[in-house]
Structure formats: structure tokens, C-alpha cells
Design goal:
The chain is of the alpha/beta class and about 775 residues long. It folds into four domains: about 80 residues, Peptidase S8 propeptide/proteinase inhibitor I9 (Alpha-Beta Plaits), CATH 3.30.70; about 350 residues, Peptidase S8/S53 domain (Rossmann fold, 3-Layer(aba) Sandwich), CATH 3.40.50.200; about 140 residues, Glucose Oxidase, domain 1; about 100 residues, Immunoglobulin-like, CATH 2.60.40.2310. The protein is built from 17 helices and 41 strands. A hairpin with a 3-residue loop joins β2 and β3. The protein is globular and about 80 Å long. The two termini are about 40 Å apart.
């Protein structure tokens, strides 16, 4: 613990030093939208960026006039090494929208599609092959492993002529590694040597490669649009046919991340390039920590996504892994489709056999050689503490806390009372103490299988943990064994909200209900890079082409694949229509026909699940949709409090805000869900307006039903909407009277139906 505190203090002091001295740091300078009325091409914009930088740097320091990235396709701006003083000077320029430090973003780290298709009663996606095969998905991630069978292009037609991207070569990546499935690959350096003034020589090429050396990007890409691979498995586990949500779609990888995370400036450049290259959907399974959220104009993903949306490109983002606390959801701008994570109906069972004959069904992925025929001494970590170490630290498997003379050859039982010590660290500590295996008691993480490779490992909840500890205390010579993992399908209930999935309401505004939808993100099988880690590959096996990962990172590409599936059937639908279709058709029920629950077994609410688990087949024919336009988003920025000059720069044209702009009006954004940030329960009634568009048959009439929490009086006017033709619009108003309601958030829904379509919108109302 002392070591952890020491390193924390060192890190803090380094941070304070870095932010207080006058040495240059990477900053992003955002200049707004491309003005189509002016002669602004990438070359002239790049030159103007260099000139702007040159104007603030003294002549004796001209060698520092260089850009890390220049943004000149979907929006204007650049990133460069600046002191705080120079950054402040630039922020005062009329042409500058915002200047912010280049932020460090985090990676948000097969039966899942079968579960979505059939186990929830949603039909089959197999007939999608008849749809056009020209949807292009761009992923901003850690790169790609092109040799994976998930990226084979057998049966795919010619690359769409509208594609303008490239396949960049690198030290271990050739142009021939791209094909008709993987049609593009870029990578980004983040050193300030990419672009210089002409007098300093020609532009240099960033060092690196589009190849994935982490595994994150390969996994997400195959989840979204991987080709069908028969007999896929992870060393025999999760055996079956692996495929992405839209196997007919094309993939383009934009490598902006490494094992240490992602530079915000590189992510922004990747989005800028992806839009210019011609992608239809961008999938981003990364984001900043919920503890350090920036406003919308200091968030590189929010800025890039806004301009992608402007150009008709849907951006799907993971909501973060900081759950289950509220106010942790990120990537929550209203122009982003924000995704929460859920489980599927499969578990990885690693049974524990106690000496008294009891068998406890734990969770974990291990490929050990232990069997029923031999048992090993069982010891609790707190009883095996090293000299001078508190029992509480040993019971948590802290580094250096165990006495190997007391643990050698034994199976150790540890608890998880301290989230700073991860399961991987506990495993390494146990191995270092020469134990035979590890049983971890952890109520929170028990539902997300930890991969321990060949080392025997199993994880149980508190109830089973009490059984194990009682057994240890009941005999002088407790023994046990941990069996290798088997996978169990048909688990119920499912889906369940993953404990790690970040929750709403949004930290920047509660006027938009986030996350938007939920999708599988627990123990997902998808393509992997070959592993050379000692102990990760079972004895006698070759590295697997597939891996099992968990996180909202894994949920995000499920929604991306579903969106591509819808786009292939409805190529003219806007990003907001596709989002609306996924939201209003999502299911709020599990595979046992009961309301969705969270990992603790309690009923989940809309801040946990968003609209619910995606139902791609239903989303093909949503009946009615809520279309949110760029103008709507600009009004949102007005209501949020940004100045007209800034909003006009983002719009690329003169834009005027309503005179009565205020944060309370955000709730009136034409969004598929409703969130009222605050309402006085003693006197106020709040009314909200929405407009729907008929994308179903003409001559249809929809009636509304309302589900409201106790104490709420919710009225909808009118109660019926009649449409005489497709693409006809109609508006309605919802009023919330909460005089009899309890304080805090209340959740409910309103559902429009014509007998054939069900259009459900959730609402969250905060009663003060």
C-alpha cells in the first residue's frame, strides 16, 4: 500500500510540474466547419494553419513551427506543441472556436449475435445477404490483424467506387494486406514532426503500421462486420460459427490507439479522414474517463462526431466502463449513438470441488490440468500473511503480502475488498507465492469471466464464498480442486446489465437521456491477434485466432453492425433515423419475459439500459422515427450556453439562437427518448414536444399508451396520430404532473402502435 501511495504522489507531482511549467505540450486548436462557399481545400487550410501557428511563435523559434495533425476534410483545425501562453493567445483569435490540451483517451475494453437474433425472439438476420454489400464501416481503434479469417473477402464484390481511402503501408503491413473486406487502413503518429513549414522540408511519414499489436481493434472490427468463420472457438470454448453483425459490410481501420491509450488529436484526425474517405458509419470504442469529462467543445470525439453527423455519417460510441455508479456515462453528446453493455445467455463455468464433496459453480476461463482425482490443501489468504503484513492485505492478495512457505502447493482463497488490486494482479501475486490455484470471492465482478490461461482460477459471489470459508474453518485439513472451464449456454435471465457499464444521467447535461441502447459486451468471442504471453496458450495448443473480451468496447461494435445492417436495407436513412429505429424497437425484457435487471438482481432503469437491448430485425421496420437534424443540434448548443459566434463556426454558416435559450429547453430536442432534468414536485407541470415521421405504410393510425411510475400523471396530446402517406410528419405533446411523486428520478415510457408496429420511447423525470 505504501508503494502505491508513493507512486501516486510521484505521479501527482509530475502532473503538477508538467502543467505549471512553460514547456510545450500538445494542444488541439479547433476552428469549426469547412466553409463550402470559400476556396478551402486541404492544402490551403494546412498552409493557413501553419501561418496561424507561425504568427504566435517568435522568429528565433521557427524550428518549432510544426503541426502534429492538420484537420481539413470534415472540419478545420490542427494540433501542435504549444506552451500554455501560446495556447491562450490562439484561443483569443476570432477564427478559433476552442483550444484544449490533447487529451489521453482510454480503450473501453459467437453467440452474441445468435442470442440477439433468436434467444430474444427477434427473428433471423440470415437474409441480410440479399441487401447491398457496399456499407463501409470505419473503426477508430488499435489497428487490425489482416490475416484473421474474419477479414477474408471470399464472395465479396468490387470495392464501391465512392471509396476514396487508402491502405497505408508500414513496417509490418503491406497494401496487399487489404482486400475487398478490409478496404482501408491508416495509422497516426502523435509526434510534432508530421507537417512543417515548406522551408523546413517535405512532409515526413509517421512511423508505425496499421497492424494491431493490442488486439482491441481486431476484436471490435470482427464483431461489427467479421466474415462468417465456421468451427471458431477459444481453445474449445464458445465453439460455433463466428460472424459480425453485418458480414457483408466493408471495413476500414484507423489506428489512433496503442496499448497505452489514444491521443485525442489522433482520434480527431482519424474521424476527419474517415469522413473524407467515404465511410457510412464510424465505430469508436474509446473515450475519456468519466472523472475528467470535458465540455462538448473540448472533447475530440464530440467535435469529430458532430461534423461526421453533418456529413451524414453515423457515429457509434461506447458509453464507458466506470459503472455501476451514476453520472459515469461518457460520449453522451446528442449526435452520438451511445452504447451500454449487457451479458448474453452464456457463462464460462469453472467448478470448485471441496473436500466435503460439495461442488460450487464458479466463473472463470482456465485451461488447467487439474481433475477430480486429486485435491490440494486450501488456505485463506488472511491466514497466509507474510511477516509484518496485515491480514486484510493478504486476504486481498496484495503484492508482497503472502508468505510462500504457507501457500506453496496450495489453492488460495482471496477476497476483493479493494478495487485498486485487479484480478490480473491477484493472479500474479498468487502465482508468485507458488500456489496451485486461486479462488476469488467477488460479488461485483463474478459475472464477467476472467481469463487466467493455464493457471487454475475460479470466481464466486459472496454467498458461495461464505460456504468455502465455513468449510475451511470446519476442518483441520481443508482441500479442494478447481476444474477446467466448460461453457454453459441457455443461461437465464439474460441479458443483464454489466456491472462495469457506465450509467446515466449524463454529467454534462441531464436533458438528454443516456446511454441510448444496450448490446452484448460480456465475454464476447471475436477475432484476436496471436498471443505469445507465457501461460496464455494451453499446453500443446497453437495461439487462437479468436479471443474472449468484455467491456462497452465490445457492445459498441454490436450496435455498429446492427446499424450497418439497417443502412444496407435503407441506404437513404439519416444517422438519426437509424438511431431512432434502434432505440424505439429495443426490448426492455429478458429471455424469461421479465423486466431487465442489473448484476445485483434489481430491476434496471433507463439510466442503466437506455432504451433497452437492441433488436436489429425489428429496427428494419420501426413504423415511426424521430429525426434529429443538424439544426436541432445547433439549437441544443444554444440551449447549453455556447455563443452564437461559436455555433456559427461549427455550422459553417451564420446561425442565430432563440432569444429565450436556456438549459431547460434541451429536453425539447427531437430525441427518441425524453429526459426532464428537474421539475418542482410541489407546483410545476412540464410539457415536452416531439415530432415523428412515418416510415411505414401510408394510411396508418397510431394510438398511444403510457406506463408511468407511482405519483406521476402523464398526458399525451393528441392520443392518436393519423398518417396518409409515408414520410408524413406529426407532432404531439407530453405533460408531466408529479405533485404526488417521490423525489428523485422516475422512469416510464410511452408507446405508439398501429397494431403492426410498436414505437416505444422511454422517459426519465427528476422530481425535486
Amino acid at each position: 500500500m505504501a508503494n502505491l501511495l508513493f507512486f501516486f504522489l510521484i505521479s501527482v507531482s509530475q502532473f503538477l510540474y508538467a502543467t505549471s511549467n512553460k514547456s510545450p505540450e500538445p494542444f488541439v486548436v479547433y476552428l469549426g466547419s469547412i466553409n463550402s462557399n470559400k476556396d478551402e481545400n486541404s492544402y490551403t487550410l494546412q498552409a493557413s494553419h501553419l501561418q496561424m501557428l507561425s504568427n504566435i511563435i517568435p522568429s528565433e523559434e521557427k524550428e518549432r513551427v510544426s503541426l502534429i495533425h492538420s484537420y481539413s476534410n470534415a472540419f478545420k483545425g490542427f494540433s501542435a506543441m504549444l506552451t500554455e501562453e501560446k495556447a491562450a493567445l490562439l484561443s483569443g483569435e476570432d477564427a478559433v472556436v476552442s483550444v484544449f490540451r490533447d487529451q489521453h483517451l482510454q480503450l473501453h475494453t459467437t453467440r452474441s449475435w445468435d442470442f440477439i437474433e433468436s434467444e430474444l425472439g427477434l427473428g433471423s438476420l440470415k437474409f441480410h445477404q440479399r441487401f447491398p454489400k457496399d456499407v463501409i464501416i470505419g473503426l477508430v481503434d488499435t489497428g487490425i490483424w489482416p490475416e484473421s479469417p474474419s477479414f477474408a473477402d471470399a464472395g465479396m464484390g468490387e470495392i464501391p467506387s465512392r471509396w476514396k481511402g487508402v491502405c497505408m503501408e508500414g513496417i509490418d503491413f503491406k497494401k496487399s494486406d487489404c482486400n475487398k473486406k478490409l478496404i482501408g487502413a491508416r495509422y497516426y503518429g502523435n509526434q510534432p514532426s508530421s507537417i512543417h513549414l515548406p522551408s523546413n522540408g517535405t512532409k515526413t511519414t509517421p512511423q508505425g503500421s496499421p497492424r494491431d499489436d493490442v488486439g482491441h481493434g481486431t476484436h471490435t472490427a470482427s464483431t461489427a462486420a467479421g466474415a462468417m468463420v465456421l468451427n471458431a472457438s477459444y481453445y474449445g470454448l464458445a465453439h460455433g460459427a463466428a460472424k459480425g453483425g453485418s458480414p457483408s459490410s466493408r471495413l476500414a481501420m484507423y489506428k489512433a490507439c496503442s496499448i497505452g491509450g489514444c491521443a485525442g488529436s489522433a482520434v480527431l484526425k482519424a474521424i476527419d479522414d474517415a469522413v473524407s474517405d467515404g465511410v457510412d458509419i464510424i465505430s469508436i470504442s474509446i473515450g475519456m474517463s468519466s472523472m475528467f469529462q470535458s465540455d462538448f467543445l473540448s472533447d475530440p470525439i464530440a467535435i469529430g462526431a458532430f461534423h461526421a453527423n453533418q456529413k451524414g455519417v453515423l457515429v457509434v460510441c461506447s458509453g464507458g466502463n466506470d459503472g455501476p455508479d451514476p453520472y459515469t456515462v461518457i460520449n453522451a453528446a446528442p449526435w452520438i449513438l451511445t452504447v451500454a453493455a449487457s451479458s448474453i445467455d452464456r457463462s464460462f463455468q469453472s467448478s470448485i470441488v471441496l473436500g466435503n464433496g460439495n461442488v460450487i459453480k464458479g466463473i472463470g476461463i482456465n485451461f488447467s490440468n487439474l481433475t477430480h482425482s486429486a485435491s490440494y490443501p486450501l488456505v485463506f489468504g488472511g491466514h497466509a500473511a507474510a511477516q509484518g503484513t496485515p491480514a486484510s492485505e493478504a486476504s486481498n492478495c496484495y503484492p508482497g503480502s503472502l508468505d510462500s512457505r504457507k501457500t506453496k502447493g496450495k489453492i488460495i482463497v482471496c477476497v476483493d475488498n479493494d478495487p485498486t488490486v485487479t484480478r490480473k494482479i491477484k493472479k500474479l501475486v498468487a502465482q508468485d507465492a507458488q500456489t496451485k490455484g486461486l479462488i476469488l470471492i467477488d460479488e461485483v465482478e463474478k459475472g464477467v469471466a476472467f481469463d487466467s490461461g493455464s493457471y487454475p482460477f475460479s470466481e464466486v459471489g459472496d454467498k458461495a464464498g461464505v460456504q468455502i470459508l465455513k468449510y475451511i474453518n470446519s476442518t483441520k485439513n481443508p482441500v479442494a480442486t478447481i476444474l477446467p472451464t466448460v461453457d454453459v449456454n441457455g443461461y437465464k435471465p439474460a441479458p443483464i446489465v454489466a456491472y462495469f457499464s457506465s450509467r446515466g444521467p449524463g454529467g454534462l447535461t441531464e436533458g438528454i437521456l443516456k446511454p441510448d441502447v444496450m448490446a452484448p459486451g460480456v465475454s464476447i468471442l471475436a477475432a484476436a491477434i496471436p498471443s505469445n504471453e507465457i501461460g496464455a496458450v494451453p499446453d500443446g495448443k497453437k495461439p487462437s485466432n479468436f479471443g474472449i473480451k468484455s467491456g462497452t468496447s465490445m457492445a459498441c461494435p454490436h450496435v455498429t453492425g446492427a446499424a450497418a445492417f439497417i443502412r444496407s436495407s435503407h441506404p437513404r436513412w439519416s444517422p438519426s433515423i437509424i438511431r431512432s429505429a434502434l432505440m424505439t424497437t429495443a426490448t426492455a425484457w429478458s429471455n424469461i419475459g421479465k423486466p431487465l435487471t442489473n448484476s445485483s438482481g434489481a430491476n434496471a432503469n433507463l439510466h442503466d439500459t437506455g432504451a433497452g437491448e437492441i433488436s436489429p430485425m425489428k429496427a428494419l421496420r420501426p413504423g415511426l422515427v424521430y429525426e434529429t437534424t443538424t439544426e436541432d443540434y445547433l439549437y441544443f448548443l444554444c440551449y447549453y450556453g455556447y455563443k452564437e459566434q461559436v455555433i456559427s463556426a461549427m455550422a459553417g454558416t451564420k446561425f442565430s439562437c432563440p432569444k429565450n435559450s436556456s438549459p431547460e429547453l434541451i429536453t425539447n430536442l427531437n430525441y427518441p427518448s425524453i429526459s426532464v432534468a428537474r421539475i418542482d414536485g410541489t407546483k410545476n407541470t412540464v410539457s415536452v414536444t416531439r415530432t415523428v415521421t412515418n416510415v411505414g405504410p401510408g394510411n396508418s393510425t397510431y394510438s398511444v399508451t403510457v406506463e408511468a411510475p407511482s405519483g406521476f400523471i402523464v398526458r399525451v396530446s393528441p392520443e392518436k396520430l393519423a398518417f396518409s402517406k409515408r414520410w408524413m410528419k406529426a407532432s404531439y405533446q407530453v405533460s408531466f404532473d408529479v405533485k404526488g411523486a417521490s423525489k428523485g428520478y422516475g422512469f416510464g415510457s410511452l408507446t405508439w402502435s398501429d397494431g403492426a408496429h410498436i414505437v416505444r420511447s422511454g422517459f426519465a423525470v427528476n422530481v425535486l
